[in-house]
Fold this protein.
Amino acid sequence: MISTEDYQTARQRVAVIDRAERRCIVLSGADRASYLQGLLTNDVVALQPGTGCYAAYLTPQGRMIADLFVYELGDVILLTVPREQHRVVLEKLDQFIFSEDVQLGDVSETFSTVAIVGPEAARVVSELTGLPEADLAAMGEHGNRRATFEGQAVIVTRVADTGEPGYDVHAEAPVIEILRHALARAGAPLLDPETADALRVEAGVPRFGRDMDEETIPLEAGIESRAISFSKGCYVGQEVIIRVLHRGHGRVARKLVGLTIEGETVPAAGTRAVAGGRDIGEVTSSAMSPALNRPIALAYLHRDFLAPGTTVTVDGHTAVVTEVPFVNRALAPRLVPSG
């Protein structure tokens, strides 16, 4: 059950999200960036130390193996990948290393990550790590910094896929456990999974394993503006993406959209969407929105039903196609019901 109090704290002050759903991989060696450049959809070679990007790793057929966050730390590249795809990504990366100066490091068993999100996230991270609050606030999208906490090394990365922007802190598991206690003392509650997911769904952020899987083309999930560089050189799966964009004018058979649903019933993942007696798609993520006080969902719909304002039926309830994000973050605290 969603905690309205903790939701308000995340929107108005600061809260913590467990990032156990992602795993860390480290790449070292002089060829690490150029190696990834030929495999991932975004422009890894263009990254400077302290910067990063969001990307996808595709099959030759253009379908997703995983989504990744790529952080150039200066001496190594840190990748964070979905937990379920971690082993597959690691094996595929290893498979394609031939003469390149690239070394893979699987730190998934030793590293842990927590997200610190909310308007006061920069202040709290600054107090705990000593990084200047102004520098944290000025970090670009997917920026990163090395720091220390309690004398131990940590990596701080800028994140927005949580719904409420903030920072991931990556470190060895015992350090993260101490950090959790320090955050609790600082008044930052640990969000339960349902509350954390409500923030994500309100922001319209797709999650691999829920809204994207091994059958998904990035264009269907609507992540191309964030995950794909259209000016870089070749990468695995590029031919399919370009063919859809150029020959198909970007039209795909289905696409992920937002749905605002009447009533009080939150549809489960897999619930079918219907229009005119025709099955036209399915729900992938859903939540009772604390800000809107009604159910919302992310769903794949047939391309004839994607326009905002289109009405469909989900589990017997009227649902309206809605542009995402569902919630204006600046207004969210004022929209939350007090009860």
The longest helix spans residues 173-185. The chain has two domains: 4-198, 253-325. The chain has a mean pLDDT of 95.
